[in-house]
Amino acid sequence: MRVVIVGAGKVGYSLAQYLTQEDHEVIVIEENEERRAIVQNTLDVMTISGNGASPRVLLDPEVRKAELMIAVTDMDEVNMIACMAAKQVGIKRTIARVRNQEYAEKDKIKFNEALGIDLTINPEMVTALEIKRILLTPSALDVEDFAGDRVRMIEVKMPSDSKLINTSLTQLTLPSHTLVAGILRNGRMLIPHGSDMLLPNDCVFFVGEVSAIKKIEDHFTVRKSKVERVLIIGAGRIGRHLAMILEKSDIAVKIIDKDMERCQELAESLDEGLVLCGEGTDIELLTEEGVGEADAVLCLTDDDKLNLLIALLAKHLGAPRTFVRVGRPDYISLMEKVGVDVVLSPRILTAGVILRYVRRSDVVSVSLLEGAKAEAMEIIIPPLSQVTHKKLKDAKLPKNSLIGSIVRDEEIIIPNGETVLKPGDRAIIFALPDTVPTVVRLFENKLESK
């Protein structure tokens, strides 16, 4: 597929990188010559210098051949106008990054569609919702839901006293309808086989029917109490969205930010949350505000190094759980190694949403795991793919891929080699990045792929 990306900032660069890895033709449009040159010199893409909403640029024959435009500049209005103009020159589908909630609210969807925008995405809201989902599953490092919330994946860290360690997967006694889909060990992601074992400090991805996953959470991981109080450092877009979301979930919220104007704006938006103007690195302030009594400390400033410092301070002062927002995905492994519990990248979360849209209609969702070290996909089995009506053992899936669950009508199946894939099945697939293009091709409908 030919994809046009308008804007070569952090999100635009990451999207171009992921899409070229999947063999898509990518054209990047960027006004800033320095940014354009960086993309041109580091990625296998075509670049055009100019404004993505300009008729001169959009009427370029190479641009008009595109099937999808993704507008991710820093300006909502530019992104929206670029998408509107793209539809006028014949580009079939458009995605706009829109941060202003006035444009992105549910009641504005029909309005945006009328403008020619097929999907609006707010990276900060996506990140805030992901944090909430993980917070509400206290023992998990990551949570993803599939098949209309009937299948769940959780990531948990194996304690040294777990009954699951040092036993081959074929010998493990797990709740029915669950499976070990992935293991992160020493920074390396593994798609496990029956002879593999879980080791202390492994980060393990379990997938299965929701009630069965809750049993794993209750019995096989370190017990942690329900989240009732959180401390947020940083009242930027993510912090503001998250504070309002958590307050609606009856979670007590305190927010610290050094910008008085931001603090006043957020204080007016909250009913009960407490907003404090101060430095997140102020040990005396953190101690006075009970950082050690909070169930989680969320470090959400725009400075990666500051977030790490605050998280380490919070741990030192007794915080049981820390979350950090990072701008650079390559920091994720480092932060986890030094003791940060959950690290989230808005760029990666946004890329996951957009990748689902870029892929064919039978790809329902895409989640990039552990800084894109692995991917979880939900795919509806089409009538005429290479794997349809085949047993799994004959489907020729790549070595570093695994089908963790299949949802067939009302039934949730943990598959084995004899399981036959049928049209309409929802398959939850885990794969390492180098195998993803092959997996996607295997599950393509033959009529669509021609």
UniProtKB/TrEMBL annotation:
GO molecular function: potassium ion transmembrane transporter activity
Pfam families: TrkA_C, TrkA_N
InterPro entries per record: K_uptake_TrkA, NAD(P)-bd_dom_sf, RCK_C, RCK_C_sf, RCK_N, Trk_Ktr_HKT_K-transport
Keyword annotations from UniProtKB, A to Z: Ion transport, NAD, Potassium, Potassium transport, Transport
Signal peptide region: none
GO cellular component assignments: plasma membrane
Keyword Isomerase among record annotations: no
Keyword field contains Transport: yes
Protein name, UniProt field: Trk system potassium uptake protein TrkA
